Amino acid sequence: MSDRKNKYMNPYLAGFIIGLMLIAAYYFSGEGLGGSGAFKKVVIASVDAVAHDYAKDAAYFAPAVNRGESPLNSFLIFEILGVIAGAILSAAYFGRLSFKLGKGPNITNKTRLVAAVFGGILWGIGSQLGRGCTSGLVMSGMAVNSLSGYVGLIAIFGGGYLFAWFLRKLWL
Amino acid sequence: MGPLFPQGLISEPLNLLIAFIIGIGFGIGLEAAGFTNTRKLAGVFYGYDFVVLKVFFTAAMTAAIGLFLMDAYGLIDIKLTFYPHTYWIPTAIAGVIMGLGFLIGGFCPGTSVCAATTGKIDAMMFVVGVFIGIFFYAFTYEPLFETLRGTGKMGQVDIAEWIGISDGLFIFIVTVIAVASFVIVDKIQKKVNSKGKIKDIEELGL
């Protein structure tokens, strides 16, 4: 009991559970599971709240803003709220609920934090341009045999392996 | 027959409640598998921990097989879901950007939310980065991205149809590839870790 911190669920069981959730998402709501979608909706809602006159005419914001319903009132937002609750429940169970900085063993905390921001920026841009991230574009796309899911799969993981050697100092 | 909400068979509040419950399952799966540990995620690119590949392929193929069977038995009509539209050029470019983002940032958006809300400070910075990235994209959308985003438009393309085989055969082939890859990556992982060069390996709970 005392040390479950470094214990993890069998990866195939975890994958199976996530797969069932993905089936449920399509069956009930007709949507896949998303990650970046909730970020997008928060950005749209906050810009709309601060500068509605700008948002209603700007090409990126207009479609969501002019629908007349809050972008926060959506499947992807409630799904992410659930994800947060689920992650906290699981982390509490495993005794992992504490402040910690994760990083490769040979870099400083500062390097890790700066890299994390830069990596996040690339995901912010990429997920908007590519219509989703690993969850919404690739995993949910693969679940319904969508070509876009496989294009994303090859590009994200292929891109990762392409850059892995150059960035090995961050992780090894 | 599903999907229920798009056909008005369940109310919006119920749909959002279901979204929340589905999210809980998704969050538990991600956290319990170790996806809040950035080293476990990066391991897939260096061979010392393939948890990402195992969880990801298992989830995708479980869902693909399940939805294929449900569609075949008339329990769901996939064509009525928000089936993704393929724009292959921006998706390919964005995918490479996200791959680079993975190697630099050590998370993807979904895993970063789990990690940030369970106390990982590096993930909190990643989340800040995602917001900066989306704001940058949003405010430079018209001059920089609008044209590119609409290129390579192919519509709602099913990859099996596109190749010219049946959905069932395609799913079968990918499942075989997935299972074979599970066996192969276990061998690679053992070999990489037997050299004793990966520091603090106990953190990974392999």
Fold and architecture overview:
- By secondary structure, chain A is mostly helical.
- Helix content of chain A is 65%, strand content 0%.
- The model of chain A has no long low-confidence stretch (mean pLDDT 95).
- With 206 residues, chain B is mainly α.
- Chain B has one domain.
- A two-stranded antiparallel ribbon of chain B has the order 1-2.
- In chain B, helix 5 crosses helix 6 (121-139) and helix 6 (121-139) packs across helix 7 (141-149).
- The longest helix of chain B is centred in the last third of the chain and has 28 residues, at 167-194.
- Classes of the chains: A mainly alpha (172), B mainly alpha (206).
- At the A-B interface, helix 1, helix 2, helix 5, helix 6 and helix 7 of A face helix 1, helix 2, helix 3, strand 1 and helix 4 of B.
Topology:
The complex is a heterodimer of chains A (172) and B (206).
Chain A: H1 11-29, H2 36-50, H3 52-55, H4 62-65, H5 75-94, H6 109-129, H7 134-143, H8 147-164
Helix pairs in contact in A: 7-8
Chain B: H1 12-33, H2 38-46, H3 51-72, E1 86-87, H4 88-105, H5 109-117, H6 121-139, H7 141-149, E2 153-155, H8 159-163, H9 167-194
Antiparallel strand pairs in B: 1-2
